[in-house]
Amino acid sequence: MVLTLVTMGTAQAETIKVVALGDSLTAGYGLPQGDGFVPQLQAWLTEEGVDAEIVNAGVSGDTTAGGLARLDWSLDPDVDAMIVALGGNDLLRGIPPESSRENLEAILTQVSGARGLPVLLIGLEAPGNYGPDYKAAFDGMYPALATQFDALLEQNFLAPLVIDGDLAAARARFMQADGIHPNKEGVAQIVAAFGPRVAELVARAEP
């Protein structure tokens, strides 16, 4: 009987630990506890029967450089996969895309290269007011890095909020008053769109 119990315990799959490394969009800025991206994503995965634990490593105001600086702290030995969602504060500060790309590449080199962990890279799209060259460089770095490191990709964190191409309607319905961060309903839209890709990430991490 003891041998049977041990065998059954060994056969059980281990919960996949996924760290979501990001900024205020990941952290759930301006929302009550439980309404942010990570808790809503956790609830979606649980409802879908995906055995994963999502760890919130989002820090409001963090740039790609900040994410790189605290990567070692976030990437403990138990981590099985990582979501990297950084770049919004680089945009707000007008940081050159070349610097942002270097920081993201350094993060992916450690996570995907050195540790061999699967990654979901979630980007953003630059506004047009920085000029076409800036926008092309910034928007292009996410798919280029995803290809380089064989990472899963979602091009724009906020893309699921756009209603029939109407940005004004999206802001009115899905954004907080600051026009930058999604409200609870907006986060739900994002999770519904990205949840299957996170499930795919978890599947990549399974032994």
Automatic annotation (TrEMBL):
It holds the Pfam family Lipase_GDSL_2. It comes from the Bacteria. It comes from Jannaschia pagri. Gene3D superfamilies: SGNH hydrolase. This is Arylesterase. PANTHER family: THIOESTERASE 1/PROTEASE 1/LYSOPHOSPHOLIPASE L1 (PTHR30383), THIOESTERASE 1_PROTEASE 1_LYSOPHOSPHOLIPASE L1 (PTHR30383:SF24). Residues 20-187 form the SGNH hydrolase-type esterase domain.
